[in-house]
Amino acid sequence: MTKQRLVILGGGESGVGTALLGKEVGFQVFVSDKGKIKDKYKEVLIHNKIEWEDETHTEAKILNADIIMKSPGIPDKAPLVKQIRTMGIPVVSEIEFASQFTEATIVGITGSNGKTTTATLTHHILKQALHVGLSGNIGDSFAKQILEHDYENYVLEISSFQLDDIYDFKPHIAVILNISPDHLDRYDYKFENYIASKFRIAENQTKDDYLIYDADDEVLVSWLKSHPVKSTLLPFSLNKKVENGAYLENENIIITIDNNKIIMPTNDLALEGKHNVKNAMAASTVAHLLKIRKQTIRESLENFQAVEHRLEHVLKINKVQYINDSKATNVNATYYALESMGAPTVWIVGGVDKGNNYEELFPFANEKVKAIICLGVDNEKLLNAFGGMVDIIVETQFMSEAVKIAYKIAEAGDNVLLSPACASFDLFENYEDRGRQFKEAVRNL
């Protein structure tokens, strides 16, 4: 019998992880990347005798696949992907491919904002008591971890792009933190397509599985009304009492599952801001479901270290606080950042706009922002949106210059906030590169 042929499009973390797992379980594997494969990944492929190509796609070697794993970064609009779909070759994401080779309990976390923080926080709590991996959009690939560690539990941070190519993938516990318009360029500019994509996280769940979601998020609540799921629902809310799930009362998080109630004070949470109370609720609900002791949950919430590039306090210089929120690649993330500012703020914003509507930021711009520095190749939309609201609005295409301008404008007691509300690919490699350049520029002041 000839081996089944697994072709992998994209030679990054998820692609190479899938290649290793695919080879181990008996597939004939071929990796193809239209761009350049990084040296560290090339070395892994060569060492494991896996056939690969980069800077091209050889159709003859791709279209004879039995199954194709597509990197989440490649859009369905790509001509090659269209051709593959026309031919009826199944296209799966890494989480779909890898999940069939593990019996682990899976916690899947998605949402437009807060995924990384909540996934990292959930993992931080669970690892005190369980054998658990952290993967998905974060860290080593899921496929590689199944191959190397075979954890009994996984916390997966999952993007809508990864959910677009699932068939049977089913987390025992699914979390949808929130949904706001993001990546609409990949969803024909239709918000409902993006919402449907996020809800695929629950499509294979049964009544024995759980869906944890934000009951204050109108988008989520109305979608669930018209598209009911089979899962057991565990909502969380800052504004209303919930019978099963989590809510806030007198600064305490109260979590109830099957009449088993635990109470967590929020005054010592390591993370600041309303949105982080929600992230803590989601993570604690997961932990409570998986029978982690209350004391362990409480201590973990208090000693958690924040995620890099997410409202990360960099330095205080001349009584001005510099804050790196480079991970804010959409308007909603920046909304949380500006909402949590307690002092006049010099705001560095801009990049690749994904169809942004800046209106929801207007109240904060009026109330908290004293100056705006636009850091992008094309800043026209920002200038039109905020031009009349602040006294100072300037443009630059260099991070070092943006930080120097901010340094000149900011006075003692102010904040300088990098929260771009946009993707980073016009001037930077990715949001991490953008955040690191910001931190370096601040340290060089």
Automatic annotation (TrEMBL):
Pathway: Cell wall biogenesis; peptidoglycan biosynthesis. One of its GO terms (biological process) is cell division. It is found in: Cytoplasm. Its main location: cytoplasm. GO terms for molecular function: ATP binding; UDP-N-acetylmuramoylalanine-D-glutamate ligase activity. Residues 309-422 form the Mur ligase C-terminal domain. GO terms for cellular component: cytoplasm. The keyword DNA-binding does not apply. Its EC number is 6.3.2.9. Keywords: ATP-binding, Cell cycle, Cell division, Cell shape, Cell wall biogenesis/degradation, Cytoplasm, Ligase, Nucleotide-binding, Peptidoglycan synthesis. ATP binds at G111, S112, N113, G114, K115, T116, T117. The keyword Flavoprotein does not apply. Pfam families: Mur_ligase_C (PF02875), Mur_ligase_M (PF08245), MurD_N (PF21377). Coiled coil: none annotated. Residues 109-287 form the Mur ligase central domain. It comes from the Bacteria. Belongs to the MurCDEF family. Cell wall formation. Catalyzes the addition of glutamate to the nucleotide precursor UDP-N-acetylmuramoyl-L-alanine (UMA). This is UDP-N-acetylmuramoylalanine--D-glutamate ligase. The lineage of its organism: Bacteria, Pseudomonadati, Bacteroidota, Flavobacteriia, Flavobacteriales.
